[in-house]
Amino acid sequence: MSRETISQSISIVHPISLSHGKNAEVWDTTGKRYIDFVGGIGVLNLGHCHPGVVDAIREQATKLTHYAFNAAPHAPYIELMDRLTAFIPVDYAVSGMLTNSGAEAAENALKIVRGATGRTAVIAFDGAFHGRTLATLNLNGKVAPYKQKVGVLPGPVYHLPYPSADNGATCAEAIKAMDRLFSVEIDVNDVACFIIEPVQGEAGFIALDIEFAQALRHFCDEHKILLIADEIQSGFGRTGQRFAFSRLNIEPDLILLGKSIAGGVPLGAVVGRKALLDNLPKGGLGGTYSGNPIACAAALATLDAMTDEHLSSWGKQQEEAIVSRYQAWRAQGLSPYLGRLTGVGAMRGIELANADGTPAAKQLAQLLGLARDAGLLLMPSGKSRHIIRLLAPLTTEAAVLEEGLDILEACLKQLT
Protein backbone atom coordinates (compact mmCIF):
# COMPACT_ATOMS: atom_id res chain seq x y z
CA MET A 1 0.00 0.00 0.00
CA SER A 2 1.58 3.30 -1.11
CA ARG A 3 2.11 6.09 1.41
CA GLU A 4 3.53 8.60 -1.06
CA THR A 5 0.43 10.79 -0.76
CA ILE A 6 0.96 11.20 3.01
CA SER A 7 3.19 13.99 4.31
CA GLN A 8 6.61 12.71 5.26
CA SER A 9 6.62 15.20 8.16
CA ILE A 10 4.28 12.85 10.02
CA SER A 11 6.38 10.58 12.24
CA ILE A 12 5.29 6.95 12.43
CA VAL A 13 6.17 4.87 15.51
CA HIS A 14 5.05 1.49 14.15
CA PRO A 15 5.37 0.86 10.37
CA ILE A 16 2.30 -1.36 10.10
CA SER A 17 -1.23 -0.86 8.75
CA LEU A 18 -4.03 -1.68 11.16
CA SER A 19 -7.28 -3.24 10.05
CA HIS A 20 -9.49 -3.64 13.12
CA GLY A 21 -9.49 -3.87 16.89
CA LYS A 22 -11.42 -5.09 19.90
CA ASN A 23 -10.81 -3.74 23.39
CA ALA A 24 -7.02 -4.09 23.93
CA GLU A 25 -6.26 -6.09 20.79
CA VAL A 26 -5.68 -4.93 17.20
CA TRP A 27 -4.96 -6.72 13.94
CA ASP A 28 -2.99 -5.47 10.96
CA THR A 29 -3.85 -5.94 7.31
CA THR A 30 -1.82 -9.17 7.18
CA GLY A 31 -3.95 -10.62 9.99
CA LYS A 32 -1.27 -10.36 12.68
CA ARG A 33 -2.61 -9.77 16.20
CA TYR A 34 -1.12 -7.24 18.62
CA ILE A 35 -1.83 -6.35 22.23
CA ASP A 36 -2.27 -2.59 22.27
CA PHE A 37 -0.45 -0.70 25.03
CA VAL A 38 -0.68 2.53 22.98
CA GLY A 39 -4.45 3.00 23.01
CA GLY A 40 -4.43 5.64 20.29
CA ILE A 41 -2.02 7.62 22.53
CA GLY A 42 -4.46 7.76 25.41
CA VAL A 43 -7.67 8.02 23.41
CA LEU A 44 -8.99 4.52 24.08
CA ASN A 45 -9.41 4.22 27.85
CA LEU A 46 -12.54 2.19 27.02
CA GLY A 47 -10.74 0.12 24.39
CA HIS A 48 -11.34 -0.39 20.69
CA CYS A 49 -14.97 -0.50 19.59
CA HIS A 50 -16.54 -0.40 23.04
CA PRO A 51 -20.05 -1.84 22.50
CA GLY A 52 -21.84 1.03 24.21
CA VAL A 53 -19.95 3.61 22.19
CA VAL A 54 -20.48 1.75 18.91
CA ASP A 55 -24.21 1.42 19.58
CA ALA A 56 -24.50 5.12 20.38
CA ILE A 57 -22.65 6.10 17.20
CA ARG A 58 -24.81 3.79 15.10
CA GLU A 59 -28.06 5.07 16.58
CA GLN A 60 -27.09 8.74 16.30
CA ALA A 61 -25.97 8.28 12.68
CA THR A 62 -29.53 7.36 11.74
CA LYS A 63 -30.87 10.58 13.30
CA LEU A 64 -28.53 13.50 12.68
CA THR A 65 -24.94 13.21 11.45
CA HIS A 66 -24.10 16.90 11.77
CA TYR A 67 -25.31 20.34 12.59
CA ALA A 68 -23.21 23.35 13.54
CA PHE A 69 -24.30 24.13 17.08
CA ASN A 70 -23.81 27.87 16.65
CA ALA A 71 -26.21 27.77 13.71
CA ALA A 72 -28.90 25.73 15.45
CA PRO A 73 -28.44 23.86 18.73
CA HIS A 74 -28.98 20.11 18.82
CA ALA A 75 -29.94 17.80 21.68
CA PRO A 76 -26.74 15.67 21.91
CA TYR A 77 -24.58 18.77 22.55
CA ILE A 78 -26.94 20.12 25.21
CA GLU A 79 -27.25 16.76 26.97
CA LEU A 80 -23.52 16.15 26.87
CA MET A 81 -22.65 19.53 28.38
CA ASP A 82 -25.12 18.94 31.19
CA ARG A 83 -23.59 15.53 31.89
CA LEU A 84 -19.98 16.62 31.38
CA THR A 85 -20.12 19.66 33.67
CA ALA A 86 -21.69 17.48 36.37
CA PHE A 87 -18.80 15.02 35.89
CA ILE A 88 -16.18 17.67 36.77
CA PRO A 89 -15.28 17.24 40.48
CA VAL A 90 -15.23 20.89 41.61
CA ASP A 91 -17.43 22.92 43.94
CA TYR A 92 -18.08 25.92 41.68
CA ALA A 93 -20.63 26.38 38.88
CA VAL A 94 -19.20 24.92 35.65
CA SER A 95 -19.90 25.68 32.02
CA GLY A 96 -17.93 25.03 28.86
CA MET A 97 -17.72 24.51 25.14
CA LEU A 98 -16.95 21.53 22.94
CA THR A 99 -14.06 21.49 20.49
CA ASN A 100 -12.66 19.09 17.91
CA SER A 101 -9.51 18.22 19.87
CA GLY A 102 -7.44 18.89 22.95
CA ALA A 103 -5.24 21.38 21.11
CA GLU A 104 -8.30 23.33 20.04
CA ALA A 105 -9.46 23.32 23.66
CA ALA A 106 -6.11 24.84 24.66
CA GLU A 107 -6.39 27.48 21.94
CA ASN A 108 -9.84 28.51 23.14
CA ALA A 109 -8.68 28.54 26.76
CA LEU A 110 -6.02 31.11 25.81
CA LYS A 111 -8.73 33.31 24.29
CA ILE A 112 -10.90 32.90 27.37
CA VAL A 113 -8.17 33.90 29.84
CA ARG A 114 -7.16 36.89 27.74
CA GLY A 115 -10.76 38.07 27.67
CA ALA A 116 -11.23 37.53 31.38
CA THR A 117 -7.98 39.08 32.63
CA GLY A 118 -6.99 41.61 29.98
CA ARG A 119 -3.51 40.09 30.19
CA THR A 120 -1.57 38.09 27.62
CA ALA A 121 1.43 36.36 29.24
CA VAL A 122 1.27 32.61 29.92
CA ILE A 123 3.48 30.51 32.18
CA ALA A 124 3.97 26.89 31.13
CA PHE A 125 6.41 24.20 32.25
CA ASP A 126 9.46 22.33 31.07
CA GLY A 127 8.51 19.02 29.46
CA ALA A 128 4.95 20.14 28.74
CA PHE A 129 2.94 19.15 25.70
CA HIS A 130 -0.28 20.99 24.88
CA GLY A 131 -0.67 20.49 21.13
CA ARG A 132 0.72 21.06 17.64
CA THR A 133 -1.21 24.18 16.61
CA LEU A 134 0.76 27.40 16.35
CA ALA A 135 -0.19 28.88 19.73
CA THR A 136 0.06 25.59 21.63
CA LEU A 137 3.54 24.96 20.20
CA ASN A 138 4.88 27.82 22.28
CA LEU A 139 3.35 26.29 25.42
CA ASN A 140 5.24 23.04 24.87
CA GLY A 141 8.31 22.66 27.04
CA LYS A 142 10.33 21.01 24.28
CA VAL A 143 11.74 22.35 21.01
CA ALA A 144 12.43 19.26 18.86
CA PRO A 145 10.54 18.41 16.77
CA TYR A 146 7.55 20.61 17.46
CA LYS A 147 9.02 24.14 17.31
CA GLN A 148 11.68 23.56 14.67
CA LYS A 149 11.50 25.57 11.42
CA VAL A 150 8.24 27.38 12.24
CA GLY A 151 9.67 30.74 13.24
CA VAL A 152 8.32 33.17 15.81
CA LEU A 153 5.44 31.75 17.85
CA PRO A 154 2.50 33.51 19.54
CA GLY A 155 3.31 34.68 23.03
CA PRO A 156 4.47 35.87 25.40
CA VAL A 157 5.10 32.47 27.01
CA TYR A 158 7.59 31.63 29.78
CA HIS A 159 8.61 28.24 31.16
CA LEU A 160 9.39 27.01 34.66
CA PRO A 161 10.80 23.71 35.95
CA TYR A 162 8.13 21.05 36.47
CA PRO A 163 8.66 19.68 40.00
CA SER A 164 8.13 15.96 40.45
CA ALA A 165 9.60 12.99 42.27
CA ASP A 166 9.72 11.40 38.81
CA ASN A 167 12.22 13.89 37.36
CA GLY A 168 14.19 15.01 40.41
CA ALA A 169 13.06 18.65 40.27
CA THR A 170 11.90 19.83 43.69
CA CYS A 171 9.13 22.13 44.80
CA ALA A 172 11.73 24.51 46.27
CA GLU A 173 13.62 24.68 42.96
CA ALA A 174 10.45 25.45 41.02
CA ILE A 175 9.41 28.18 43.46
CA LYS A 176 12.91 29.69 43.32
CA ALA A 177 12.71 29.74 39.52
CA MET A 178 9.28 31.36 39.73
CA ASP A 179 10.64 34.05 42.07
CA ARG A 180 13.44 34.75 39.60
CA LEU A 181 11.00 34.89 36.67
CA PHE A 182 8.95 37.61 38.29
CA SER A 183 12.04 39.49 39.47
CA VAL A 184 13.91 39.45 36.16
CA GLU A 185 11.72 38.53 33.18
CA ILE A 186 8.12 39.71 33.58
CA ASP A 187 5.81 41.69 35.83
CA VAL A 188 3.49 39.29 37.65
CA ASN A 189 0.61 41.65 36.87
CA ASP A 190 1.02 40.91 33.15
CA VAL A 191 0.41 37.17 33.57
CA ALA A 192 -2.96 35.83 32.48
CA CYS A 193 -2.54 32.20 33.45
CA PHE A 194 -0.43 29.22 34.34
CA ILE A 195 -1.08 26.06 32.30
CA ILE A 196 0.01 22.75 33.74
CA GLU A 197 -0.52 19.02 33.34
CA PRO A 198 -1.26 17.23 36.65
CA VAL A 199 0.67 14.33 35.12
CA GLN A 200 2.83 15.14 32.10
CA GLY A 201 2.22 12.76 29.22
CA GLU A 202 4.77 13.45 26.49
CA ALA A 203 7.49 13.90 29.13
CA GLY A 204 7.08 10.30 30.32
CA PHE A 205 4.20 10.25 32.82
CA ILE A 206 5.73 12.65 35.31
CA ALA A 207 3.42 13.34 38.28
CA LEU A 208 3.26 16.88 39.64
CA ASP A 209 4.53 17.55 43.17
CA ILE A 210 1.49 18.04 45.42
CA GLU A 211 3.12 20.70 47.59
CA PHE A 212 3.96 22.77 44.52
CA ALA A 213 0.45 22.39 43.09
CA GLN A 214 -1.04 23.82 46.25
CA ALA A 215 1.54 26.62 46.41
CA LEU A 216 0.78 27.47 42.77
CA ARG A 217 -2.95 27.59 43.45
CA HIS A 218 -2.33 29.97 46.37
CA PHE A 219 -0.01 32.14 44.25
CA CYS A 220 -2.58 32.37 41.45
CA ASP A 221 -5.31 33.38 43.89
CA GLU A 222 -3.05 36.01 45.46
CA HIS A 223 -2.17 37.60 42.11
CA LYS A 224 -5.50 37.11 40.28
CA ILE A 225 -3.91 34.71 37.79
CA LEU A 226 -5.95 31.87 36.30
CA LEU A 227 -4.86 28.25 36.58
CA ILE A 228 -5.48 25.88 33.67
CA ALA A 229 -5.21 22.12 34.16
CA ASP A 230 -4.50 20.15 30.99
CA GLU A 231 -6.27 16.83 31.58
CA ILE A 232 -6.30 15.86 27.92
CA GLN A 233 -4.23 12.71 28.52
CA SER A 234 -4.52 12.26 32.30
CA GLY A 235 -8.30 12.61 32.43
CA PHE A 236 -11.23 10.22 32.16
CA GLY A 237 -9.90 7.59 34.53
CA ARG A 238 -6.30 7.17 33.45
CA THR A 239 -5.04 7.69 37.01
CA GLY A 240 -7.89 5.69 38.60
CA GLN A 241 -10.16 8.67 39.24
CA ARG A 242 -12.09 11.02 37.00
CA PHE A 243 -9.28 13.57 36.72
CA ALA A 244 -5.73 13.72 37.99
CA PHE A 245 -6.04 17.18 39.55
CA SER A 246 -8.12 15.68 42.36
CA ARG A 247 -5.02 14.00 43.85
CA LEU A 248 -3.46 17.45 44.18
CA ASN A 249 -6.29 18.79 46.35
CA ILE A 250 -6.75 21.86 44.15
CA GLU A 251 -9.43 23.20 41.84
CA PRO A 252 -8.26 24.65 38.51
CA ASP A 253 -10.12 27.57 36.97
CA LEU A 254 -10.21 25.96 33.53
CA ILE A 255 -9.79 22.31 32.52
CA LEU A 256 -8.77 21.06 29.08
CA LEU A 257 -10.33 17.79 27.93
CA GLY A 258 -9.88 15.52 24.94
CA LYS A 259 -8.50 12.08 23.97
CA SER A 260 -10.65 9.53 25.90
CA ILE A 261 -13.65 11.85 26.16
CA ALA A 262 -15.53 10.10 23.33
CA GLY A 263 -14.27 6.54 22.93
CA GLY A 264 -12.13 7.26 19.87
CA VAL A 265 -14.28 9.85 18.10
CA PRO A 266 -12.63 13.29 17.70
CA LEU A 267 -13.85 15.58 20.48
CA GLY A 268 -12.44 17.96 23.06
CA ALA A 269 -13.69 20.52 25.53
CA VAL A 270 -12.69 23.42 27.69
CA VAL A 271 -14.70 23.66 30.91
CA GLY A 272 -14.40 25.70 34.08
CA ARG A 273 -15.75 28.61 36.06
CA LYS A 274 -18.94 29.81 34.41
CA ALA A 275 -18.04 33.50 34.65
CA LEU A 276 -14.85 32.84 32.66
CA LEU A 277 -16.59 30.87 29.92
CA ASP A 278 -19.21 33.60 29.55
CA ASN A 279 -16.86 36.60 29.33
CA LEU A 280 -16.23 36.81 25.57
CA PRO A 281 -18.69 38.51 23.17
CA LYS A 282 -21.36 36.44 21.43
CA GLY A 283 -19.65 34.57 18.62
CA GLY A 284 -16.26 34.67 20.31
CA LEU A 285 -16.41 30.91 20.82
CA GLY A 286 -17.69 28.16 18.54
CA GLY A 287 -16.77 26.13 15.49
CA THR A 288 -18.35 24.32 12.55
CA TYR A 289 -17.68 20.77 13.70
CA SER A 290 -17.27 21.42 17.42
CA GLY A 291 -19.71 19.21 19.28
CA ASN A 292 -20.72 17.13 16.26
CA PRO A 293 -23.82 15.07 17.17
CA ILE A 294 -22.12 11.70 16.57
CA ALA A 295 -19.14 12.70 18.71
CA CYS A 296 -21.52 13.89 21.45
CA ALA A 297 -23.40 10.57 21.37
CA ALA A 298 -20.11 8.69 21.71
CA ALA A 299 -19.12 10.90 24.64
CA LEU A 300 -22.45 10.31 26.39
CA ALA A 301 -21.92 6.55 26.09
CA THR A 302 -18.40 7.02 27.44
CA LEU A 303 -19.71 8.83 30.51
CA ASP A 304 -22.26 6.05 31.03
CA ALA A 305 -19.40 3.56 31.31
CA MET A 306 -17.13 5.74 33.44
CA THR A 307 -18.74 5.40 36.82
CA ASP A 308 -16.51 6.10 39.82
CA GLU A 309 -16.75 2.42 40.76
CA HIS A 310 -15.58 1.31 37.32
CA LEU A 311 -12.76 3.85 37.16
CA SER A 312 -11.51 2.88 40.60
CA SER A 313 -11.60 -0.87 39.97
CA TRP A 314 -10.11 -0.61 36.47
CA GLY A 315 -7.36 1.71 37.66
CA LYS A 316 -6.54 -0.40 40.71
CA GLN A 317 -6.36 -3.63 38.69
CA GLN A 318 -4.05 -2.13 36.09
CA GLU A 319 -1.88 -0.27 38.60
CA GLU A 320 -1.39 -3.37 40.73
CA ALA A 321 -0.50 -5.50 37.72
CA ILE A 322 2.07 -3.01 36.42
CA VAL A 323 3.64 -2.15 39.77
CA SER A 324 3.91 -5.75 40.97
CA ARG A 325 5.48 -6.86 37.70
CA TYR A 326 7.92 -3.94 37.68
CA GLN A 327 8.97 -4.62 41.25
CA ALA A 328 9.60 -8.26 40.40
CA TRP A 329 11.73 -7.23 37.42
CA ARG A 330 13.80 -4.91 39.60
CA ALA A 331 14.23 -7.57 42.27
CA GLN A 332 15.48 -10.14 39.81
CA GLY A 333 17.69 -7.71 37.87
CA LEU A 334 15.79 -8.40 34.67
CA SER A 335 17.69 -5.88 32.55
CA PRO A 336 20.60 -3.50 33.20
CA TYR A 337 18.57 -0.88 31.34
CA LEU A 338 15.46 -1.06 33.55
CA GLY A 339 15.12 2.36 35.16
CA ARG A 340 12.46 4.07 37.23
CA LEU A 341 8.72 3.50 37.23
CA THR A 342 7.04 6.89 36.74
CA GLY A 343 3.52 8.22 37.12
CA VAL A 344 0.52 7.42 39.30
CA GLY A 345 -2.42 5.03 39.16
CA ALA A 346 -2.69 3.28 35.81
CA MET A 347 -0.81 6.14 34.14
CA ARG A 348 2.65 4.58 34.28
CA GLY A 349 5.92 4.91 32.44
CA ILE A 350 8.96 2.64 32.51
CA GLU A 351 12.29 4.38 32.02
CA LEU A 352 15.20 2.80 30.20
CA ALA A 353 18.53 4.10 31.47
CA ASN A 354 22.23 3.32 31.22
CA ALA A 355 24.34 2.41 34.24
CA ASP A 356 25.34 6.06 34.69
CA GLY A 357 21.69 7.16 34.68
CA THR A 358 21.70 8.66 31.19
CA PRO A 359 18.72 7.91 28.94
CA ALA A 360 18.94 4.60 27.05
CA ALA A 361 17.17 5.84 23.93
CA LYS A 362 18.89 3.29 21.70
CA GLN A 363 17.56 0.43 23.82
CA LEU A 364 14.04 1.84 23.82
CA ALA A 365 14.10 1.99 20.02
CA GLN A 366 15.26 -1.64 20.05
CA LEU A 367 12.49 -2.54 22.50
CA LEU A 368 9.79 -1.05 20.26
CA GLY A 369 10.82 -3.34 17.41
CA LEU A 370 11.27 -6.45 19.56
CA ALA A 371 7.87 -5.99 21.19
CA ARG A 372 6.12 -5.28 17.89
CA ASP A 373 7.59 -8.46 16.37
CA ALA A 374 6.34 -10.35 19.42
CA GLY A 375 2.83 -8.87 19.15
CA LEU A 376 2.90 -5.90 21.54
CA LEU A 377 2.59 -2.23 20.58
CA LEU A 378 4.38 0.27 22.84
CA MET A 379 4.65 4.06 22.81
CA PRO A 380 7.84 6.04 23.54
CA SER A 381 7.96 9.27 25.54
CA GLY A 382 10.38 11.43 27.47
CA LYS A 383 12.72 14.17 26.25
CA SER A 384 15.12 11.53 24.90
CA ARG A 385 12.41 9.03 23.91
CA HIS A 386 13.63 6.70 26.65
CA ILE A 387 10.43 6.10 28.64
CA ILE A 388 7.80 3.51 27.69
CA ARG A 389 4.36 5.08 28.00
CA LEU A 390 1.87 2.40 29.10
CA LEU A 391 -1.59 3.27 27.79
CA ALA A 392 -3.46 -0.02 27.63
CA PRO A 393 -7.24 0.47 27.75
CA LEU A 394 -8.54 0.57 31.31
CA THR A 395 -10.96 -2.16 30.25
CA THR A 396 -8.18 -4.56 29.22
CA GLU A 397 -8.98 -8.10 30.32
CA ALA A 398 -6.66 -9.32 33.10
CA ALA A 399 -5.36 -12.20 30.99
CA VAL A 400 -4.59 -9.93 28.04
CA LEU A 401 -2.84 -7.42 30.29
CA GLU A 402 -0.68 -10.18 31.76
CA GLU A 403 0.08 -11.50 28.28
CA GLY A 404 1.25 -8.06 27.25
CA LEU A 405 3.42 -7.73 30.34
CA ASP A 406 4.86 -11.20 29.63
CA ILE A 407 5.90 -10.01 26.17
CA LEU A 408 7.38 -6.82 27.62
CA GLU A 409 9.33 -8.86 30.16
CA ALA A 410 10.75 -11.17 27.50
CA CYS A 411 11.77 -8.23 25.31
CA LEU A 412 13.42 -6.35 28.18
CA LYS A 413 15.63 -9.40 28.73
CA GLN A 414 16.84 -9.19 25.13
CA LEU A 415 18.06 -5.60 25.22
CA THR A 416 21.70 -5.08 24.35
TrEMBL record:
It comes from Pseudomonas fluorescens. This is 4-aminobutyrate aminotransferase. GO terms for molecular function: identical protein binding; pyridoxal phosphate binding; transaminase activity. InterPro entries: Aminotrans_3 (IPR005814), Aminotrans_3_PPA_site (IPR049704), Class-III_PLP-dep_AT (IPR050103), PyrdxlP-dep_Trfase (IPR015424), PyrdxlP-dep_Trfase_major (IPR015421), PyrdxlP-dep_Trfase_small (IPR015422). Keywords: Aminotransferase, Pyridoxal phosphate, Transferase. The keyword Transferase applies. It comes from the Bacteria. Belongs to the class-III pyridoxal-phosphate-dependent aminotransferase family. Its cofactor is pyridoxal 5'-phosphate. SUPFAM superfamilies: PLP-dependent transferases.
